[in-house]
Design brief:
By secondary structure, the protein is mainly beta. Helices cover 11% and strands 32% of the residues. The protein has a single domain, classed as 2-Layer Sandwich (Signal recognition particle alu RNA binding heterodimer, srp9/1), CATH 3.30.720. The mean pLDDT is 86.
């Protein structure tokens, strides 16, 4: 998925960022995946010293997603608060107090 795919009047994407990868995933097993992404300008400057790898956790309910997000993000930095996303999932993203980056999602089926 590219950033231009989620651009809308409430969440415009700059032309310089619209073709960057928002999400590319390699499924691992039944419900885990390795995810990669580019970093758009609105997320700040990136350098080689940063950890731009993320661990993605798929919850089985919004309540579980909230519990995981709130527990793992405690003492860290929230990049995207957990909420309903423009692409139809319940989604949040953060860096924990150890510098590990996480994505927590719930997708109603």
């Amino acid at each position: 998925m590219r950033f231009k795919e989620i651009s809308n009047p409430e969440f415009p994407i700059a032309a310089a960022d619209e073709n960057k990868l928002m999400n590319i995933a390699l499924p691992i097993g039944k419900s885990n995946m390795l995810i990669g992404n580019d970093v758009p300008g609105f997320m700040g400057k990136v350098n080689e010293q940063e950890n731009r790898n993320k661990i993605s956790v798929s919850a089985e309910s919004k309540a579980e997603a909230d519990q995981l997000f709130n527990g793992l993000s405690a003492g860290g930095t929230v990049e995207v608060p957990i909420t309903d996303s423009p692409w139809g999932t319940y989604f949040g993203m953060f860096r924990d107090k150890y510098g590990i980056e996480w994505i927590v999602t719930f997708e109603a089926k």
